[in-house]
């Protein structure tokens, strides 16, 4: 059992936003598979169809996606959130997005009655015009968005950051100033693939965000730097597919981890990661998870 931003989690392996998060039943399925908490697909103020296909490709060492924030909008998602809450015995976190602070607040406010346990503010989609990374690179905007959502809810507010910035710590500090209870790092790394036979970019949107094994070292460094600079917990995400990856992320400073791309290899990843962390703690002579969170900072 761990506690993060006041939420009690049976283990620190959380489903990341965007994977299996579009319906209440798919979220519940991941909870049944052993996840400590689940995060929904990002939900916004208006229905969005998303980018044209192909919207996701498997590069072998990671996935490149440009889904384009497809979602039914918050009024139409409330029912799914209610199902996720009813069917899962773990915290359900609503990932939300908007074009500005007001829209974020409207979406959060509109979802509160469906009963989420926390909000995750997605200010970091790398390829969504008017949303995401353009906002997530702007410290003032991030502070304003966090503050606006904190104004409409008492629930914990997590802010998910983009690695596509020169100084992720300054953005993390802005989120903290705005009242964020935790930082989630990282969203996907902006990238592109080109088909050499036709010369066309492969993704319908031409570019997208890279996730999976390839981004783990980027995520580890971001979490390491954020942990050193902030007073709020950091939740690590990026390339975690085994308990060893999760322990490494925790040693960088993550209080919990999120798992996304690895779910495509099977949802048993949550149980494997949770059990592996627990065995590592008990067999390594550590008292509890707190002993390994940020351990790399103490090894000088
Ligand atoms: O929907 C997407 O294309 C998407 C989102 Br919202 C995000 O936050 N990160 C990402 O890689 N894709």
Automatic annotation (TrEMBL):
Its EC number is 1.3.-.-. InterPro entries: Aldolase_TIM (IPR013785), DHO_dehydrogenase (IPR050074), DHOD_1B (IPR033888), Dihydroorotate_DH_1 (IPR024920), Dihydroorotate_DH_1_2 (IPR012135), Dihydroorotate_DH_cat (IPR005720), Dihydroorotate_DH_CS (IPR001295), Dihydroorotate_DH_I (IPR049622). Binds 1 FMN per subunit. Its main location: cytoplasm. FMN binds at residues 41-42, 122, 160, 186, 212, 238-239, 260-261. Substrate binds at residues 41, 65-69, 122, 187-188. GO terms for molecular function: dihydroorotate dehydrogenase activity. It catalyses: (S)-dihydroorotate + A = orotate + AH2. Residues 3-280 form the Dihydroorotate dehydrogenase catalytic domain. Pathway: Pyrimidine metabolism; UMP biosynthesis via de novo pathway. GO terms for cellular component: cytoplasm. The active site is at residue 125. It is found in: Cytoplasm. GO terms for biological process: 'de novo' pyrimidine nucleobase biosynthetic process; 'de novo' UMP biosynthetic process. PANTHER family: DIHYDROOROTATE DEHYDROGENASE (FUMARATE) (PTHR48109:SF1), DIHYDROOROTATE DEHYDROGENASE (QUINONE), MITOCHONDRIAL-RELATED (PTHR48109). Catalyzes the conversion of dihydroorotate to orotate. This is Dihydroorotate dehydrogenase. It comes from Methanolobus chelungpuianus.
């Amino acid at each position: 059992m761990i506690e993060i931003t006041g939420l009690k989690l049976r283990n620190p392996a959380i489903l990341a936003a965007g994977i299996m998060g579009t319906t209440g039943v798919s979220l519940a399925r991941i909870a049944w598979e052993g996840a400590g908490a689940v995060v929904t697909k990002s939900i916004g103020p208006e229905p969005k169809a998303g980018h044209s296909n192909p919207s996701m490709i498997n590069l072998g060492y990671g996935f490149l996606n440009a889904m384009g924030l497809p979602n039914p909008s918050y009024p139409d998602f409330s029912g799914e959130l209610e199902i996720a809450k009813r069917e899962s015995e773990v915290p359900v976190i609503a990932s939300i997005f908007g074009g500005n602070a007001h829209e974020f607040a409207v979406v959060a406010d509109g979802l509160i009655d469906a009963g989420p346990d926390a909000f995750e503010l997605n200010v970091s989609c790398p390829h969504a015009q008017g949303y995401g990374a353009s906002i997530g690179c702007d410290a003032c905007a991030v502070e304003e968005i966090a503050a606006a959502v904190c104004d409409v809810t008492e629930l914990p507010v997590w802010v998910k950051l983009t690695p596509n910035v020169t100084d992720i710590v300054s953005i993390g500090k802005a989120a903290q100033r705005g009242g964020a209870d935790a930082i989630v790092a990282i969203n996907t790394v902006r990238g592109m693939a080109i088909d050499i036979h036709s010369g066309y970019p492969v993704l319908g949107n031409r570019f997208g965000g890279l996730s999976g094994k390839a981004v783990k070292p980027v995520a580890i460094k971001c979490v390491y730097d954020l942990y050193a600079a902030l007073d709020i917990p950091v939740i690590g995400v990026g390339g975690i597919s085994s308990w060893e990856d999760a322990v490494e992320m925790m040693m960088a400073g993550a209080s919990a981890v999120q798992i996304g791309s690895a779910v495509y290899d099977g949802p048993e990843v949550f149980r494997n990661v949770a059990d592996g962390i627990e065995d590592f703690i008990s067999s390594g002579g550590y008292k509890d998870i707190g002993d390994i969170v940020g351990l790399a900072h103490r090894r000088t």
